[in-house]
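Worked Example 4.2. Consider the chain below.
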Amino acid sequence: MEYTQLGRTGLKVSRLVLGTMNFGPQTDEADSHAIMDAALDAGINLFDTANVYGWGENKGRTESIIGNWFAQGGERRDKVVLATKVYGNMGADGDVWPNHDKLSALNIRRAVDASLKRLRTDYIDLYQFHHVDRDTPFEEIWQAVDVLVQQGKILYAGSSNFPGYKIAQANEIAARRGGTIGLVSEQCLYNLAERRAEMEVIPAAQEYGLGVIPWSPLHGGLLGGVLKKQAEGGRRAGGRAADTLKDAKAREQIQAYEDLLDKHGLEPGEVALAWLLTRPGVTGPIVGPRTQEQLASAVRAVELELSEELLSGLDEVFPGPGPSPEAFAW
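Applying the procedure from the previous section yields the following structure tokens:
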């Protein structure tokens, strides 16, 4: 496994991030624990989760699964850089109570303590804001973060799904206040088929020293060889991927992508991950394996070297928008 610094920090993290969103909803606790053990064995040390994972009436379940794994000992907690998130409403379904969501100082304090209890640990390495809160000023957010850092409950703060201007605003306010070092990472939607982050989010992250952690690197399965799998009688695309493939132009694009990689004798899913590892500013993509086999495939991507010819071919199939303002102006 390869490692890099998380943004401008001294924290060393793996070039792949273990996403845990499937733990609970799709992967049972025993298999989830086995995947986490395999991830550590492969050298992956950055584990990502969120307080709402588990979803619905099972919100918090994923954090509990991770906490039970930590409780097994074997230096599991010490070896992991633990990242979780706050924003979503954690009240019971149908019981949406004020101040049980978003980024008020009250909810941040409440959410951290609840996550620590579920995760069975006394600190969180990277505490991420899951979404922009337009109603809470960053002065209040950073005040809450300062207290948590002083208490030893969190070490770093990051963002997720932030536009470029909010990354700038957050870190400018942090700099004026002093205390916290501000955002150190941004977790955003970024992959071959969805490159809008290149316009402003990634440049802002680079300017302010944030590590970029792409989520959905296979774009809901579209970049994982979905057409070939369907032709061979395998698992059919569902959800967003199925909706996208109904569009003839999009289907032609995915077919061109798979044909290109077939020509080079490469696996689509591994190439999609390896491509992200070539992109400026990217710390490492989040992989969310349901099985150990899927994890092994993701790990192989770290060692995959993409030729200039292949990179050019990928740009032809999935042309990026380019940086701002050139992307929308002369």
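The beta strands are 3-5, 12-14, 17-19, 46-48, 81-86, 124-129, 154-160, 183-189, 211-215, 286-287. The CA atoms of residues 166 and 202 lie 12 Å apart. Compare this with Example 4.1 before moving on.
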